[in-house]
Structure formats: structure tokens, C-alpha cells
Amino acid sequence: MDKLYAMKAWELKSLLERREVSAAEVLDSVLDRIVEVEGKVRSYITVTEEEARKAAAAADAARARGEDAGAAAGVPMAVKDVLCTRGVRTTCGSRMLENYLPVYDATVVGRLRAEGLTMVGKANMDEFAMGSSTENSAFFPTRNPWDLGRVPGGSSGGSAAAVAAGEAVWALGSDTGGSIRQPASFCGLVGLKPTYGLVSRYGLVAFASSLDQVGPIARDVRDCALLLSLLAGHDPLDSTSLPGEVPDYLAALGGGVRGLKVGVPRELVQEGLTAGVRESLENALRLLEEMGAEVSEASLPNLDYALSAYYIIAPAEASSNLARFDGVRYGLRVEGAADMLEMYGRTRAAGFGPEVKRRIMLGTYALSAGYYEAYYGQAQKVRTLIIMDFEEAFRRFDVLVSPTSPTPAFGLGEKVEDPLSMYLSDVCTIPVNLAGIPAVSIPCGLDEGLPVGLQIMGKVLDEANLLRVAHALEEALEFRAEPDPARGVGR
Amino acid sequence: MSAYEAVIGLEIHAELKTSSKMFCACDASFGGEPNSRTCPVCLGLPGVLPVLNRQAVVLATRLALALNCEIAPHSIFHRKNYFYPDMPKNFQISQYDLPLGVGGHLEVEADGESFRVGITRVHLEEDTGKTVHVSESGRIHGSEYSLEDFNRAGVPLLEIVTEPDIRTPEQARAFMQELKSIMEHLEVSDCRMEEGSLRCDANISLRPAGSTKLGVKTEVKNMNSFRALQRALAYEIERQEGVLESGGEVNQETRHWDADANVTTPLRTKEYAYDYRYFPEPDLVPLELDREFIASVEATLPELPAQRRRRLREDYGLPAHDAVILTSSKAMGDFYEAAVAAGADPKAASNWMMGELSAYLNAKGMEIEEVPVSPAQLAGMIKLVEKGTISGKIAKSVFEEMLESGRSAEEIVAERGLTQISDEGELDAVVGEVIKENASVVEDFRKGKEKAVSFLVGQVMRKTQGRANPQLVNDLLLRKLRGGD
Ligand SMILES: [Zn+2]
Questions:
Q1: Does A155 participate in catalysis according to the annotation?
Q2: Do residues A184 and A215 lie in contact, with contact meaning Cβ atoms separated by under 8 Å?
Q3: Given pLDDT bands bounded at 50, 70 and 90, which one contains residue A1?
Q4: Which segments of A2-52 are extended strands (E)?
Q5: What span, in angstroms and rounded, lies between the C-alpha atoms of B229 and B169?
Q6: How far apart are CA B315 and CA B322, in angstroms?
Q7: In the structure, how many helices (H) and strands (E) does chain A have?
Q8: pLDDT tens digits for B196-253?
Q9: What are φ and ψ of residue B113, in 5° steps?
């Protein structure tokens, strides 16, 4: 038998359900692995060993009584530290919330608890999910298990690194401009950004409310489908949550891609791709054709403006969402100020890191009287045009594919001093958030030993179809490489 | 007549009478231990999201319809961003360029004249919490620290903005009284100014009488009663007049009404120079109100004060003035109609309510709901007067006792033996006595001084402690004096 920590969630589930292993054994395997590699990878801000042991014991007890322990029971999970967990420190990667204990569970956390959630820790992230490398964490950077000199991507870098390194079997991330897909791509994993409104945002500490979505990061498409089915569904506490029945995502797997119309947006495969990324993409497209899909070029003409629009809309919403961190009610308060305004100023100066401050200032400026129309108003118009571009493309194509990122994982410190080049690493993922459509990233090859991700984009609420295509391609690609963080290099 | 005309517009905030808050399930009623009526949503904890209270939408629509507004089939919420410790999120969810109701108007009567005030907009927003500055003065300046109570944070508020159609402080007060009465009739707000559930700010400017150009306006805040509104506006007119007369210019500024000093003082303008950075609230979906919804709200609109006034005039033959007073609050009108329904003569009931009852309420500073006398008891007393059981004069003292004790007129009259004496035999002796004791007055009468008889009636009333039937006494006296016996 494989090492338990390295197995897929669906494999572990079937072992657990047949009682061939216990949840305690699975958890021990993962906790041992954390002891082994966490010092090098640093996926977690908080490891919740005690809570995990209780959950595993409860799962074992339920199964011993012959009861259904729940669909997530005994399968260790990492939860991005941007999701509120009752009584468990939730920092958002920020000094501002370094000691913050939420009084309630995010809806997704609550749903997973009802399914026996075994949470091993709260995963590191870029502060308030702003970043693409996890280097913007106020505490420490997380390293890529494939190459400890490289970033795991971001902002859900801790979640992805934990799953890739065997420190969790699957994970929750959040995606505002690529924060699930890009780290999944950098870490050789499957990550899915659901349709806006499919998964509740209640209890997800907001970065940009109109773009944020919670989603799964997993080792294969089946695990991703399984976890998505536990997250999706209407939540009366989230007004933007969509009504309607959630389809059976697992049942959609195995359908094949014969006759599938696949578009490749030319705007996403122009310059900036590394040779390895281009090769992996072409290989994946060839496999799709071999399986009977029709692949041709697509166009999303307004995509050139997507990055600019995103870097107005997201900071604008963030500037307002982060206003509540003022030292009055919770979180950091810098004492010794002479008056209230000084207390606000000193608290926010000490509590927020440079990238968060940069975006608050950008957003505040974009919403200011006299600039609103030129910036925010214009960005919303571009967003509408991008939505229309996708609608037009989906009249011709069932799915669109592109690289998830133009490059594989870059080196630690490589882009920290150059925010613009950092922003450009999300150029393929950002349009998806602006349009509110779903997209999944699957590993599709290696570029000089580092994993490359393929992004498959679908129509609104077409997750089942996306997962079917992703699954077919996953089987054809036979991506089997695994990292070895204990040695610090990929193998 | 002043050389200037005042131009006044009002901005009113009313807390809606919903059972829960605007965006969460917390109790929205007034009171409670500080911060006992809060939850993660109204405390603005990280990760929370708002869910719109449908009851607030129904109540807002009800008022907007009563103010003859057009109801927007599509309206949205914005975030109004500014930092203040009583605002948990440091932004307020409010409606901005697409409010729920626009383009309404209200007809108001003041001093027997009717005038129309345009309603620019009616929109929904959330209330803030309350800051208590801990210092001797209770003001922020010099306070050591401040305490926050978020029980009111997130309570639904209606903002009503009028056109600058008001010309006098009296009209402003009459408008507010009418609006309050409408909100009470609609049961959309408690309208308690002292609890802050009804608040009013005013924009006011002066211009030469007859001019159509607007002058520079000031905004007056902190008027906590109708009286304060009227006095603050009167003061501000006088102040601006003084500035203009002396050749000066009115500063565009916000001024604070100081009810103790009877003056308005400027607020530091810097504090209010906010850029609110409004943008559409991404956590809420647009508010879509279809025709069926609007029609269903319209169908449940109760009778409004103006309709009630007309009905009181037509059905009961009341003068216009009576109808205005009796509809000044819903409770007043309800009391009146209940008394009439219990058999009181409509005009007599109106007289009692506008006279003795109102005087009593004013003197005690009470609301009509707090009076121990029921409408049926008032009707009972009026019937005793009608039947001649008690005189009008006795009735006044009986009513006073009813107001104090809450007992019925019948009980009081029986206990105190106040029944009117209408028995000729019983009165005959007293009349005889009075004639005997007042020989000179009797002489005056006989010489032709007819008025002397009323003095004699008064003497009989005195001897009977007011219980004698005055008409009967009058008749008896005349008969005796003319008959010579
Ligand atoms: Zn609440």
C-alpha cells in the first residue's frame, strides 16, 4: 500500500469505509509527514492537531457503530486561513488578525463539519489573498514542494503546497483572480474556481466581493469533483448565492470528449509563454483531438483590458472591505494614540503589509470623487464587454482552454520588487473571475521539472461538463510525477 | 412683512418598525442592554454578508406610495464609505442614484391654508450604532475613551428628502407633523423623536421676496422635537437675515441647533468634508419590485390622515380645524372614533378632546395612549351631560377626576352625589331663599334690569354646589319674579 498521506481522498475514503484503515491512522500519517516536511515547506499558519484528532476519533467511532461518518470524514484537509473557523485562529495571513478567533464557521466549513471534516490546519496565504506567490504572507513565505527555491503560487499557496507535500490530502482555497488555479498549476494539482455564486462566500473574509469564490484544491479530478459537491449549493446567508439543485459531479466523470468543441483563445497563447508551457499545451490539445474533440482557435477581443479592469475593480472593493480593520472592535489595535484618527492610522499602518496598503490606496483613488467614472465606471464597462466576449465564444465552443499561467513556478523573491510582473502572472486566470464563469486547472506536463497547468474554462454553472473534460484529459495525460519536498527537488 | 423669503428643504430619517434588522435576524426594537442585540453581521465581523429584510422593503414601499412616489422597478444599494467607530464596517449600506421611490408629493394644511411639498426621494439604508464619550461633558473633545453600543446598528432606516418647497418654520413643523401622522397610520415607524426613531435635518436659505434665485444655504442638524425644528428654523432665518442685511454673505456650512442656548452654531466644516466613495454594494443583488408586488402593497394601504380628515368632516360634520387636530396622530383619531362609536355626540367628543383632554396631555407631557380614560368612558360622560344627569360645569370636574383615577363618570357621579337637580319641588325652596336674601337685586330686576336674573341663577347654583339644572332655575326665577309670589 502507498503511504497514506500520499493517497487520493477517494482512495482513502474507500479504505476507510471498508474499515481497512482507521481515520486515526490516516491522520497519523499526515501529521508525521507534517513533522517531516513542514519545516521546509511551511504550508501552515496554524496546525490544528488536537481538533483533527477529535474529528478522526469521531469518524472512527461512527464507522465502528456502522453509521455514515460523512463524506469528508477522516480525510485530512487544509483550510485556507481566509475562511472563518469557530474558535480556531483565522489570520488571513495578516498581522491585523494575528490573534483573531472567529465566533462562527464559514458556511463551507459548517457544511464540511456536517460531513465529518478532519481539518489539520489553516493554510498560509498572501495577506488578505492579495498576491500570486504567498510571499505576501505577513508571517513567512511558503515554498514549492517541487523546488524549495520556488514559490507555490498564490494566494492559496499554503493550501496547494500542503496537498502537494502530503501535509493534507485535499484543501480549500479561494480564487479572486486565479488564487486557486495558479497555485494548483504551480504545485501539480487540480484546482477549480466555481461559477460565481455556486459556493457560499459567507465566512470567507472578503477581498473583492464580486470576484471571490471558494473552491477545491485536490490531487486529481475525482477528488476535486467530490469536494466541490460538498461545497456547492444555495446559502440563504449569501445574497449572491445561486438557487437551484447541485448536479452530481462524480456521475459526470468518465463521459469522454467525442464531438466536444474546444476553443483556444488566441489572446491567451500569444507572447510570454515558456517553451515548456507551450509544448505541454500543444500536447494536451493533440490528445483532445485524438479523443475526438474538435479544437480550433477562439477569440476574446477585449481580453487585453482584463488585467487593467481587474486591478481597478478588485482594489476598489478591497479598499471598502478592509475598512473594518480599524482597531475598534477586534484584531490589532496600536495603543498609545492621542485620538481616534491617530489610532486608526497607527493600527492600519502596523497591521497591513505593503501589498495590501498598495491596493487599498489604488482602490480608494479609483473610487474618489472626480475619478470614479474614469476608473471604476470604465472598468465595469470593460467587465461587461469581457462577459459578452465569453458569451459569444461559448456560442461556438463547449469549453475554452489555455495555460493556467504563462510560466511554471518562479523563484522566491524573483518578482517581489516588481508588482507589475507579479500581476502579469495572473493574466490567463483573471478574465474568468471578471466573467464569473467556472474554470479548472489540471497538471498537463513538466517544464524543466516543474509542473505546468492547463486551464479549462466553461459556461456558467457548467462545472459538471468541465470536470468531465478534465477527467478525460487527466486519463490521457497520465501525469504521474510527484514532488519530493523532503529532498527539496522534484523527481 | 420681511424683505426675504425662506427656502427650506427637509431630510428626514425614520427607523422602520420591522421585527428584525435590515440585513440580519437581530431584534430591531428599541432598548436592550448595550450590544445585546447584535450578531456577526451587524457587528461587521470579517466574512459576514448582508441579506435584505423583505419587511423593510414592504414598509418603505408603503410609505413611498403614501407620499405619491413612483416606485422604482429596479433599484440598487451602494456603499457609503467613511470611517466612524459607530459604523462596524466603516461603510453604510444605502441607496444612492437608484432609490426605491422618487417624484412624490404631500399636501399639508397649516393655519387653514393648504400647501404642497415635493418629495424628491425615499430610500432605504441602515442605521449606525451609538457612541458614548466618557467625559464630564459627554463630548468627544477631552473624553478619555468612548463606548460603542451596536444595538441600533443595522436597524432599517428610511430617508425622505423633500424639495425646497417649504417657506416658513410653521410649514416645516406642519409638514413633519403630517409626515409623522402618515407614518403612524401606515404603521411603518414608531416616530419617537426622543428615541431617535424620527430625525430631521433642514436645508435653509434666504432670497429677496419675489426672487426665484436660490441663496446660499446652511444645513441645520440636531433638532430633536417639532418645537426645536420650528425654533431652530426661526432662529436661522433671523440670523441669515442679519448677515444679509449687514451686507455680509451666508457661509455654506452645517450648523448645530443648541436647544439650551437657543442658537445654531457652525460645526467644524473639516469634519464633514467627506468623499464617500459611493459604489454599488457587491454583496447584494438589485432590488426588483414587480407590478404585482407594488399592487399588493397598495392594496393594503390603510386610510391616511388626509382621507380621514375628509371623512371626519363629511361624516360627523366637524369643522376643518377639528379634523386637523384629531388626525395629528393616529392614536388621537382612533380615540376619537372609538368614543363616537361608543355613542358620544361627534361634536361634543371633539370639543372635549380638543379642550380638556389636550390641555391635560400638554400639562402632563403625556401621549394619548397613556391616558387612563377609555374612549367608551369619555362617551359615557358625554351621555350623562346630554341626558341632563350632570351639568356641563360638573362634567368638567368629573372629567378631571376620570383622568386622574381612570374611573367611569357614572361611578364618580354616584359616589359624590353630583346628579343634577331637575326636580322643581327640590329647587323651589332654594330659589325662594335666594330671592329673599337678595332684595336689592330683585328690585333691580323689577326696575327692568333683565340681566340681574343671571346673578340670582349663580346664587342658586352656588347653594346647590352646581348641581341644579341651570335652565330650570332660570325658568323658576323668572316665574317667581314676574308672578310676584
Ligand atoms: Zn445582527
A1: yes
A2: no
A3: low
A4: 44-47
A5: 7
A6: 13
A7: 16, 13
A8: 889 999 999 999 998 989 999 999 998 989 999 999 999 999 999 999 999 999 999 9
A9: -110, 145
A166-170, A227-231, A458-462, B274-278: the lowest-pLDDT one: B274-278
Q: B326: helix, coil or strand?
A: helix
Instruction: Please name the residues in contact with A278: beta carbons below 8 A apart, sequence gap of 6 or more.
Output: A269, A403
Give the helix ranges, DSSP H, for A129-220. 157-165, 181-186
Q: Would you state the CATH architecture of domain B424-483?
A: Orthogonal Bundle (1.10)
Tell me the backbone φ, ψ of residue A267, rounded to 5 degrees: -65, -20
Residue A310 three-state SS: helix
- Widest distance between CA atoms in chain A: 71
Q: What is the C-alpha to C-alpha distance for residues A165 and B47, in angstroms, rounded to an integer?
A: 29
CA distance A362 to A275: 34
Q: What pLDDT score does B151 carry?
A: 97
Residue to test with chain B: of A103, A238, A324, A361, most B Cβ within 10 A: A324
Res B111 pLDDT > 80:
no
Contact B258, B236 (CB under 8 A): no
3-state SS assignment for residue B437: helix
DSSP A321: H
CB B102, CB B74: distance < 8 Å: no
| Every domain of chain B and the residues it spans | 4-295, 303-416, 424-483
Hey, are the CB atoms on A367 and B81 less than 8 Å from each other? Answer: yes
A239 → closest Cβ in B52, B89, B140: B52
Residue B11 Rama label (left phi>0; alpha psi -120 to 50; beta)? beta
DSSP string, A220-276: SHHHHHHHHHHHBS--TT-TT---SPPP-HHHHTT---TT-EEEEEGGGSSSS--HH
Cα A272 to the chain's mean position, in Å? 23
Spatial contact of B266 and B254, defined as CB atoms under 8 Å apart: yes
Residue length, chain A? Answer: 491
Is A348 touching B (CB cutoff 8 A)?
A: no
Least Cα separation, residue A202 to chain B (angstroms): 6
Given an 8 Å threshold on Cβ–Cβ distance, is B47 in contact with A329?
no
- Cα distance between residue A330 and residue A102, in whole Å: 10
Q: Rounded to an integer, what distance in angstroms lies between the CA atom of residue A244 and that of residue A210?
A: 20
Other beta carbons within 10 angstroms of residue A349's beta carbon come to: 10
User: Look-up: residue for cell 474529528?
Assistant: A55
Q: Given this model, what pLDDT does residue A403 score?
A: 97
A40 has catalytic annotation: no
Residue B211: cis peptide before it, omega within 30 degrees of 0: no
Residues 6+ apart with CB under 8 A from B272: B254
Cell numbers 500569444: residue: A270
B194 to chain A, minimum CA–CA distance in Å?
28
pLDDT-derived band at B273, boundaries 50, 70, 90: low
Which residues have a Cβ under 8 Å from the Cβ of B229 and sit 6 or more positions away? B169, B172, B173, B176, B200, B202, B223
Q: State whether A239 and B43 contact (CB < 8 Å).
A: no
Distance CA B385, CA B381 (A): 7
**Which structural domains are found in chain A, ordered by start?**
4-259+439-477 (3.90.1300.10)
Report pLDDT digits (tens) over B157-183: 999 999 999 999 999 999 999 999 999
Active site residue A179: yes
